TrEMBL record:
A Pfam family matched in the record: Methyltransf_11
Signal peptide boundaries: none
Domain Methyltransferase type: residue ranges: 47-138
UniProt GO molecular function: demethylrebeccamycin--D-glucose O-methyltransferase activity; S-adenosylmethionine-dependent methyltransferase activity
Keywords: Methyltransferase, Transferase
EC number(s) per entry: 2.1.1.164
Record keyword Methyltransferase present: yes
UniProt GO BP: methylation
Protein name per UniProt: Demethylrebeccamycin-D-glucose O-methyltransferase
Amino acid sequence: MSGAAVDAEYAALAADYDDDWAVYNRATAERTLRAVRDRAGEPGRALDVGCGTGTLLERLTTTAATVAVGLDRSAEMLTVARRRLPGTPLARGDAAALPFADASFDAAATNSALHYADDPAGCVRELARVTKPGGTVVWTDWDAGALTTRGVIAWLRLTRRPLGRALSATAMAAALTDAGLTDVRVDRWRHGWLWGLATVSGRKPG
C-alpha cells in the first residue's frame, strides 16, 4: 500500500476512528460479511486484510465456528483493535506481501482498504494465494465507476490526501478473475448519497 502518508493519516485517525466512521464502517462490514457467508458459510479460518480497528473482524468472530485473523499496516489502528478484540490474532503487514503461507485460510476478505494500494490487483493475487482451494475471496471497496465516488477521488487528489489506485467495480471483478478466481460476482451498491461501493467475490478452484 502507499507508504508514509497513509501511515501518518491513520496514526492520527486511530483514536477517534470508530466514532467518526461508525455508520460507514458498520455498513461496509455487514455487506462484506454477508458476501463471505453467502459464499463460504461459516469459514473455519478467515483473514481480514486492512482490518483497521476491527469492525469486520469482530463480526467474523461472532460464532465459534470461525477463527479470524486480522492484518493491518497501521500500528495505531491495531492497538485499538487489540483493545476491542483481546485474544484475536492480529499482525502488522502489507496487503501487497501477506506474511502467511499459501492456502492458509478458508476465506480472505478486505474492506475499504485496497484503494490505498498502488497495485490493488497485486494485493488480490496475494489474497488468492493465501486462500485454500475451494475457498472464497471477498473485496469491498469504493467503486471508481460511480460518479460521486469519482468526485471524492478527484477531491483527495486535488488536496494531496493519501490515495493509491481506486478501481471500478468492473476492474475489481477483472482483478479477481486475473488472480485465478472463478464464479466472480459483483454487487454494486451505495452508502448514503456519496459513496458508490462494490463488493466483489470469487472462489478459488480446487
